[in-house]
Amino acid sequence: MTASVKTAPQMRHRIAEIKLSMAQMKNNYFANRISAPMEIRTALEMELCDLNLQLMNINADEFKRRTHMKTRMNALVREALDANGLPHVWDECRALAESEFPQPEGAAT
Is the residue at 68 inside a domain? Predict the structure, then answer.
């Protein structure tokens, strides 16, 4: 495994390198009958799976962060509107957004 790969862009780059290596091994096998040892192929597959899992975890963490940030931002906007005597603006904006994006049929209300 490559311990030096830390950031999502580095992980995506390493994933591309692994896929290229595996494709080259497969091409060498079918075109030239040169077989790569199973240990090498298995190690690459393990690293690929590990990197994909790490990348999924990073993406999930980023999604959670953005969700919490938007929730907090909404709360701050609502507080500011209330403090300035404009609580109706929030309700008007919500009604407008809901009219632009109606719930699909059968969705829970």
Answer: yes
